[in-house]
């Protein structure tokens, strides 16, 4: 079993809501063209020019449809182990939007990920009459302590007001799946998983539902900041990506 999560569904929900409340015509599903934005007075300041370029790439920040229209995805899959136990494991992998100034977009994507994961797990439980293990991994573009990181661990959106969801699609502010960060569970989060001249920090995680059936055995060790592998930043010959690989070995018990 597998499913693909399109985070653009969040933008579509905004669009549908606008249609219902304002009875407007259909809006194009493509990204708005740069020249559709209001003209900005040209100035000679080079820093301002850079800011304008970034603004154009993002789109109009005041338009919730544009904010949520981000080509990021997630993948859900269920695997049955080829052993005598026939235990099932649900794996989720994702890439969350990058922009640190648009934390609300990243949080909405994280909520949608866990919302869809809970639905997918429920289907697996009903179809195969078992309680599957759950592992969630990916590039969350969020450092430890960020809203996304906190939500993944607590399953609760601390920014919600009076228990009312402010998310697109009326996503619940609580996730029914309790997760732990694998590296923090074993010891601590890595010092960094992303290393570039402009930023060095931890953005990638492996989360898992801590049950009697799934226990981490070991983690893939990452290089120290002073290591020659990363001292001049990534990517390089040793690591062809600006993100370091993370990984782990799990033990799944015979009890299903």
Strand content: 15-25%
Number of helices: 6
What's the pLDDT, averaged over the residues?
A: 83
- Binned, the helix content reads 25-40%
Q: How does this structure look, described?
A:
The structure is a single chain. The protein is an alpha+beta fold and 256 residues long. Helix content is 28%, strand content 20%. The strands form 3 sheets. The chain has a 6-stranded mixed β-sheet. Strand 2 and strand 3 form a beta hairpin. It is globular and about 50 Å long. 28% of the residues are buried. About 11% of the residues have low confidence.
What descriptors fit this protein?
about 260 residues; about 30% helix; two-stranded antiparallel ribbon; 6 helices; single chain; alpha+beta
Give the SSE map:
Elements: E1 2-6, H1 8-22, H2 46-58, H3 64-68, E2 73-80, E3 88-95, H4 103-128, E4 133-139, H5 147-154, E5 180-181, H6 182-186, E6 194-195, E7 200-201, E8 204-208, E9 214-219, E10 248-252
Parallel strand pairs: 3-4
Antiparallel strand pairs: 1-2, 2-3, 4-8, 5-8, 6-7, 9-10
Helix pairs in contact: 4-5
